[in-house]
Every structure is written in C-alpha cells, then in structure tokens.
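A student in our group prepared the protein record below, which I am reviewing. Here is the record exactly as it was handed to me.
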Amino acid sequence: MQEKNDIRFSISNKEQFSFRSALLLIHDKSILLERDQGNGDLEVYVPGGAVQFSETAEQAISREMREELGVKLISPEFAGILESFWSRGAISYHQLTMVFRQQVDEMLFSDLDHLNYRDLDVSAQAKMAWYSLAEAAQVMQPKGLLNFASFGSPLRHEIEID
C-alpha cells in the first residue's frame, strides 16, 4: 500500500520505480514468506516495504517488521542489493531492493508462527507461512532474493530481469 513518503513513483503511465527494503527471516533451512491474494492474484514475497524519504534502508526494514510482524529486530545483516525488472499487464517495473537477513531463533520462530494479524499492517487476505528454501524458489517473487539467503556470504549485487 502506498504511504505518504514512500520512495516509489510513476515515471509514466506505463513505468514505475520503487526503492524497497526486504528481510529474509531464516529458520532451519526455511524462510518466512507472506502470501497475499488481495488483488485477486496470489503473490508470495518476503516481508518488507518501501523506504520512505529521509529514512535509511535499515530504518525502513525495522519499521516494516514492527508494522507487518509486530517484532523488533536485533541486528539484521545487510546482504546486498537486488535490482528487479518485470512487467505486469501494461506496466513495466524497476525495483531497487536493499536486502537484509536475520537468523530466527526458536523463540522468535514461535512468535512468528502465531501472529495475530488483526494488530498488523497487512491486507486482510495476507498470511505468513514458513517455506523450505526449495519451495520458496518455486513461488516467491522476486526469486533473486534467495541468492542472499546464506549467512556470512559477501555482499552481493544481483540483477533479475523477468
């Protein structure tokens, strides 16, 4: 959902750009994904959202995790940047995503597995679910985010053209 200071805008009526932060929450070779069928089409993606003007990417991911998951992150690891290009209908998108990752311990896993969606900033149709990394590769968008899932790996700059 577009918020007041989000850094996303239309270049033309057929081209859109967005600057986002995304978080890979990893637990025992699985990843937390959001399934949303709010606009009729099923979308599966990692938690995150638009960076707002005057906000750092890390501040954005912390804000988004409070809003979408009701959790405070301790210290997410910056993993790199994903540039994504895709089309949906007549609109072409260019998205720049700052990717973070965090290992999820048993306590946080339990909290995330029992979310109370009424108190969160997600669509009424959205549900969080844990997927194996292999399952995630089949359903999530953008798929290139999975290239950032290995902890301790060097910073990456990935480009995904769909």
